[in-house]
Specification:
The protein has helices at about 10-25, 30-50, 55-70, 100-105, 110-120, and strands spanning about 75-80, 85-90, 125-130, 140-145. With about 150 residues, the chain is an alpha+beta fold. The chain is globular.
Length: about 150
């Protein structure tokens, strides 16, 4: 595309819709985003689990990152025990410079997908940096919560 503008695809269309709804309706829409994208993530995770058959936390996480990289979303991962730090420089939803809270809500899709893939319902997510908040990269940590 001319001018370096990305072409609209289904994910970026979802991002635009969510940003618009958030701007119009405020934080009241966030629980709906979390629920909707979380449910979708679980569906995706179930399909990928059958396809990949990961044999543990590290295998599931590295398969996920390979899928991201193969899909044009350059990402790196560092897995240590039951923690995985992921960095990336591309937002498939096109949320750059929008709002951290929208990113956090839409990331429920990845979190729920990874809960299924890893078999860890107690998987947590901490977003440390995000393109949505204007950071130069996304940096998040997935971790298995004890207890």
């Amino acid at each position: 595309m001319s001018g370096g503008k990305r072409r609209t695809n289904m994910q970026s269309l979802h991002g635009k819709l969510c940003v618009s709804l958030y701007q119009q309706l405020g934080e009241a829409v966030l629980p709906t985003f979390v629920e909707t994208y979380g449910e979708y993530g679980r569906e995706i995770g179930s399909g990928l689990k059958k396809k990949w058959n990961p044999d543990g936390f590290e295998s599931a996480m590295t398969s996920f990152i390979k899928m991201c990289n193969d899909g044009g979303m350059p990402s790196d991962i560092c897995v240590t025990g039951k923690t995985a730090q992921v960095t990336g420089t591309f937002c498939p939803f096109g949320l750059e410079n929008t709002d951290y809270k929208i990113c956090e809500a839409l990331m429920s899709m990845d979190l729920e997908m990874l809960k299924i893939l890893t078999g860890k319902e107690n998987l947590g997510l901490r977003i440390e940096k995000t393109l949505a908040a204007g950071d130069d990269e996304c940096r998040m940590t997935y971790f298995v919560e004890e207890g």
